[in-house]
Specification:
Layout (H helix, E strand, L loop, with lengths): L1 E5 L5 H10 L3 E5 L3 H8 L10 H11 L2 E4 L2 H7 L2 E4 L15 H10 L7 E5 L7 H11 L5 E5 L9 H6 L3 E5 L3 H10 L1 H6 L3 E5 L1 H32 L3 H9 L20 H15 L2 H29 L7 E5 L14 H11 L3 E5 L4 H7 L4 E2 L3 H5 L4 E4 L12 H6 L6 E4 L6 H5 L4 E4 L10
Parallel strand pairs: 1-2, 1-4, 2-3, 4-5, 5-6, 7-8, 9-10, 9-12, 10-11, 12-13, 13-14
Helix pairs in contact: 1-3, 10-11, 10-12, 10-13, 12-13, 13-14
The protein binds nicotinamide-adenine-dinucleotide (NAD).
């Protein structure tokens, strides 16, 4: 099929590349000229595993191209994916729907033949109905609108787009269903992804509910970490023990500094706000509590760093390992790691930030921090080492307990992602602190 992907950020660029990999002819539209230029050269503007390889294959072959010109995409494609951003609005409550509304308003007058518009952005419940009115006002005929929310995990965007566990399509016509079945035909033919065909409102709620549930699970185990910290219990053992029950499960049960990134924080906030607006007070209250637990995690992490330093942090040199909101991406949007680095600075500490992929984006967005270009540089002379993003380079498997021990000033580790095995560190002389777990001291 000839398709377009409008908005080529963290969702849209992997989606465009994956659609080309499925065999479609794809045009990506990206308003940001720098990003468009980078994509056009066959490179990704951000780190996402597998994306560079797909771009390097499909851009030179001509199957995938990028433009800033929406008219070119309208003339070319029979199916248009909308993958523009939905950040929070100026009040920080609901979504700013400007990019979605703007994209559809600009596209509508350019559509001169029957086609399908497929929304992938995460939107406020009621958006499809609003967009249908816009298309009707502009007297656009023969356009089917589908809401097809995306469930990919950043850091696995390419893999999750090519091998999704489900495809949700909120639609209201047989033609729209045919278009969705055609664009995803190679995936559906494998039989391992469930196609859920529903009405648009259900598709909108389903996506918000999915992210809200993930956030709830994370906040639940982090609330248990708070309980464990106050009762001398070990939250990791609690998570393991409760997760054996298949109704609970182990996925998403790793305690730590909480959720961040370009999706969960805004999606939970906007969904809670909307639930309040429509009078779903139970859902709104639940999600507000989820957010409250999440916000409290940075304070809990600051306390651990203070304990590791042995008092107020003025002058403390911190090896701060991680800036991305999670491993596998260079995305620093709402990064809990950088929120903690900011708090440590405010307390007078000197964090030196190193991240294998996100150091450039972090440097641009947060020039106030000191950055290291290598792990060794970050560790040299540190009073406290903080693992703030769960990159494999920071684990005992990479031999870090022994190598880092030679260069830090004090063997004090704070692991706010609960990723290390304390035993491997304590035998190398480290004291290890993790949220909701007893302190582990060096082995004699
Ligand atoms: N990032 C993810 O992993 C992910 C996963 C699932 C859903 N989503 C949802 O997908 C949407 C996009 O998220 P993102 O993380 O890719 O955001 P993003 O900010 O990284 O990308 C959006 C891009 O759209 C571009 N854009 C805006 N208006 C445009 C227009 N009219 N024409 C062409 N380009 C335009 C922007 O320049 C930007 O590069 C959001 O609603 C998000 O909630 C994201």
């Amino acid at each position: 099929m000839r398709i377009s992907v409008i908005g080529c950020g963290h969702l849209g660029a992997p989606h465009a590349a994956a659609m080309a990999d499925l065999g479609h002819d794809v045009i990506g539209v990206e308003l940001d000229p720098d990003m468009c230029r980078t994509l056009r050269s066959g490179h990704s503007p951000f780190y996402e595993k597998g994306l560079d390889a797909l771009l390097a294959t499909h851009v030179p072959s001509g199957r995938l191209r990028f433009t800033t010109d929406l008219a070119e995409a309208a003339a070319f494609a029979d199916l248009h994916f909308i993958a523009v951003g939905t950040p929070l609005d100026a009040d920080g409550q609901g979504y700013d729907m400007g990019q979605v509304i703007g994209a559809v308003r600009s596209l509508a007058p350019l559509l001169t033949r029957p086609c399908t518009v497929v929304g992938k952005s995460t939107v406020t419940v009621g958006t499809v109905a609003r967009l249908e009115r816009i298309l009707a006002e502009q007297a656009v005929a023969g356009v089917d609108l589908v809401w097809n929310p995306e469930f990919l995990r950043e850091g696995h965007a390419v893999e999750d787009t090519l091998y999704p566990d489900r495809i949700v399509a909120g639609l209201s016509s047989a033609e729209a269903q045919k278009a969705i079945e055609a664009v995803y035909a190679p995936i559906l033919a494998r039989g391992d992804a469930e196609l859920i065909v529903t009405d648009p409102a259900t598709a909108e709620v389903l996506k918000s509910a999915a992210n809200s549930f993930l956030a709830t699970k994370i906040s639940f185990i982090n609330a248990m970490a708070e309980v464990c910290a106050l009762s001398g219990a070990d939250v990791k053992a609690v998570a393991h023990g409760i997760g054996i029950d298949h109704r609970i499960g182990h996925a998403g049960m790793r305690p730590g500094i909480g959720y961040g990134g370009g999706c969960l924080p805004k999606d939970v906030r906007a969904f809670a706000h909307r639930m309040g607006e429509i009078g779903a007070t139970g859902a709104a209250t639940l999600l507000q509590a989820v957010e409250g637990v999440n916000h409290g995690r940075v304070d809990a992490a600051v306390t651990l760093v203070e304990e590791a330093f042995g008092g107020p942090l003025a002058g403390a040199r911190i090896a701060f390992l991680g800036a991305a909101f999670k491993a596998g991406t260079s995305d620093i949007r709402n990064s809990p790691a950088l929120a903690l680095a900011g708090r440590l600075r405010a307390e007078g500490a000197r964090p030196v930030v190193f991240d294998p992929e996100a150091v450039h984006s972090a440097r641009r967005a947060h020039p106030e921090h000191a950055y290291a270009d290598t792990l060794e540089e970050a560790l040299a002379g540190a009073d406290v080492t903080v693992i703030a993003t769960e990159w494999p380079q920071f684990s005992e498997d990479a031999g870090l307990p022994a190598t880092a021990a030679r260069t830090v000033a004090a063997r004090q580790l704070v692991d706010i992602r609960t990723v290390v095995d304390p035993l491997d560190w304590t035998v190398a002389g480290w004291t290890v602190r993790q949220l909701g777990r007893p302190v582990r001291r060096p082995q004699a």
